[in-house]
């Protein structure tokens, strides 16, 4: 298997578009514009990029960013082995060489000195300097950079610099409407739509509490977890408490409010 094949997505991922994001992404890719996808956790950002990589038939390399990540983790480094030193490409370098879509998930977690390595790749230069190796890579014509971030987690210390932001075309995601989300939960997990609608209504209650004791509402991802538990035979109220409530709050009042909402829905 070549590097390219290894990173290709061979089966169509299930993705339910919310509006015209598929067509707009295709246009951004055709112009090789770097793309940012913003939105709350678990609302379909990663699934969208997987789907687009499949649709465009391009390899996808995903990197989960974190605050300990250094530029070398993205670009590459020399390793010591029995035969001496050997250069190992990082994921960004591999993507630029093979013409992959490189998806930097939660990029704002990375330190700013790490983030700036993407700058020359995201303007007209489309190059990546490997300083330690003394090599300048010209990105493959198919290469595209995609970053995601959750504006809800932003603080003054953790935000992208304008000089980074203004290199990207942006997509803003949010949780889908109840009807669309019901379809997503049902299709993704195979539960019936009536049950999916009940889960989505509990999600709606939690999202109304955002800013009133909850930092984030219940994500589509968690709704699919609850659905999977129920499908596996877990009693619905127990599944909802476990998948929808316990992970998102430590506050007893909020927990009780959400538990009551579950009791009301599953009577
Ligand atoms: N539009 C959609 N079509 C299909 N599935 C979806 C959609 N939106 C959400 N999902 C479901 O929600 C789950 C979470 O979505 P995803 O992993 O894309 O979230 P994310 O926005 O990338 O979250 P994070 O920011 O935490 O990485 C998916 O695994 C899928 O089950």
Automatic annotation (TrEMBL):
One of its GO terms (molecular function) is ATP hydrolysis activity. Pfam families: AAA_5 (PF07728), CbbQ_C (PF08406). This is Nitric oxide reductase NorQ protein. InterPro entries: ATPase_dyneun-rel_AAA, CbbQ/NirQ/NorQ/GpvN, CbbQ_C, P-loop_NTPase. Residues 181-265 form the CbbQ/NirQ/NorQ C-terminal domain. Keywords: ATP-binding, Nucleotide-binding. The keyword Nucleotide-binding applies. It comes from the Bacteria. The lineage of its organism: Bacteria, Pseudomonadati, Pseudomonadota, Candidatius Mariprofundia, Mariprofundales. Belongs to the CbbQ/NirQ/NorQ/GpvN family. Residues 34-168 form the ATPase dynein-related AAA domain.
